Amino acid sequence: MTIAALFISLFSFMFIGIPVAISLGLSSLVTILLFSNDSLASVGLKMFQGVGSHYALLAVPFFLLSSAFLSTGGVARRLIDFATNAIGHVRGGLAMASVLACMLFAAVSGSSPATVAAIGIICIRAMVRAGYPESLAAGVVMNSGTLGILIPPSIIMLIYAATTEVSAARMFMAGFLPGIMIGLMLMIAIYIFARIKKLPAQPWPGFPTLMRTFLAASGGLMLIAIVLGTIYGGIASPTEAAAVSAVYAFIVAVFVYRDIGPLKAVSWRQEGEALSGAFGRNAQQMLMAFVRLPTDSDMRKVVMDASKVTIMLMFVVANAMLFAHVLTTERIPHEIAELMVGLGLEPWAFLLIMNLLLLAAGNFMEPSAIILIMAPILFPIAMQLGIDPIHLGIIMVVNMEIGLLTPPVGLNLFVAAGITGRSLGWAVRAATPWLLILLIALMLITFFPQISLFVPEYIDSLRGY
Amino acid sequence: MLGHIFEKVEEGFISLLIVGMTLLVFVEVVLRFGFNTGGVWVEELVLHMGAWLILFGASYGVKKNVHIGVDAVVNMMGAKLRRRVGIIAILLSLLYCGLFMIAAWNYLAKLYLIGIEMEDLPIPSWLGKSILLIGFAMLGVRIFQLLINVLQGKSTGFVSHNEAEDALEEIKDQVVETGAKKPGREELDSVKNSSGGGGS
């Protein structure tokens, strides 16, 4: 009865257009009022715990802030230049460079649709100009853009970690290898395709050019190094690393790259300017820029963009925590788990069913909402069946990636349709062949836990656990 | 005009909270690693600032359409049915705000009676958590405004946040520059139906 009331009310609320956060909170409240003895005061307490007691979740606003600073066209352009110079000279190299650029940009920005937009707008056009079919160009970018939620730092992983109380740092370690693996699988597939279709290669730019573009891109690349280095090294928690990366991203975007903010388009050294003169002018301008920061329209926009997504995500999280609380106090996941174990369900069969369930859910809900609703149910069952919590998290994240590419909610499809000016149906057809690679990767990751667990366990062994 | 000023105040407060939180954690990290000092109170303060950010921002989010929702079903309905369903959705959301305001009031009243302070800060606990009541009251007011707009025919109800649209908005200068379609919600809808064209 309770379980039916909870889920029927949740899905009816969502389907009549009530925001996901309110649907979660209201269905939980209704269930509590009808079936439990909890007082409303304890609901108030739970709600405050949901918004104000998860220190690990504070990494979300900080990472969003850092990504808002570095998700500019300028950073995308530098990463693409570097990637093209690094592997563009191979057959099909421009497409492979797009994959690499997507992986790097995804690690910096953490958002899949933003990656497809920023990389796609440059790379799809460049590939078409170089003689690649447009459907291949768009398909590759749409698929590699999904790596944004798998390659750390990833917002979805933070949400999974908070919901299931596993370590966010370990999730960040676990996502690394599967992310690289999927990137390489896409590149190999492109290479084979390029051989068959005789796709062009770019000229080798020479080592000095490669180094120059690497240095130009290093402002963004360093962010990945700082975040992953401090977390993997056990120096900082994800929350601390995120705060540092937000400040770093601000400095790089405003004072070094000068893509946005008060120093926009001010060059480091004007033509014919003496070095000492340039130094003095820059120092003075930077000082002035600090004063102008609070009134700068770019800065206000970046901060508000990050705030809006923070509010949206965290408000869903807070309500989902109440939902999860109702689930646990009513022992719903435990009952399902006992039922499944009683039926003699093998772990692999459970994982297969879970994949199908998540892929279906990915068709009509956003990744964060799916994780928040499904993780509290699936997690206890998986624990009963002896599945590693980190492994489970990575499987869920890879499922969410595929959900970004399936209509009607597939965000990456909308972005690709938007930048190519084609129909959504065209985008679906362009993405599908490469989607198969993601499905193969999902199967590999599901049935070989070591792909996910190797890095965290290796780091553990280094630290001597 | 008054609404415009209030919006600026809201945005200012939200920006102040998120920037303040970032700097506090950043400075705490620097102090701890650089100088081996740091305050335990930072964690509690930043957690409370986070709570204020989310609950204060929730109503701002309704105005700016940032909350996510499932609109696949609603989009299939005809205009008349959609309006009715939209009104039901809003009334249920108002019920949600009302229930949470009662919950918040009961909880805060208990805290006030006990009279405890926060763990590391000399502030009464109920005051730090008062945003629970303020936030849900503000959310209720915003949703009530939405109801009035729907009744006057100015709006069809909740508009779900669209991340794809945001991403396209970010690059719109480049899109215009390279001669592609300028994206927007209507454009995206027409893209869905048309067979496309242009592009390359």
**Radius of gyration of chain B, whole Å:** 22 Å
Principal-axes geometry of chain A comes out as: globular
Main interface: chain pair and counts: A-B, 89 and 90 residues
Describe the main β-sheet of chain A briefly.
none
Oligomer: heterodimer
Provide the β-strand percentage band of chain B: under 5%
Mass-distribution shape of chain B:
globular
How would you characterize the largest beta sheet of chain B?
A: none
Straight-line N-to-C gap of chain A: 46 Å
Fraction in beta strands of chain A: under 5%
Query: What is the number of helical segments of chain A per DSSP (H or I, 4+ residues)?
Result: 21
Helix content of chain A: over 70%
One letter per element, helices H and strands E, the order of chain A comes to: HHHHHHHHHHHHHHHHHHHHH
Distance between the termini of chain B: 45 Å
With helices defined by DSSP (H or I, 4 residues minimum), what is the helix count of chain B?
8
Helix proportion of chain B: over 70%
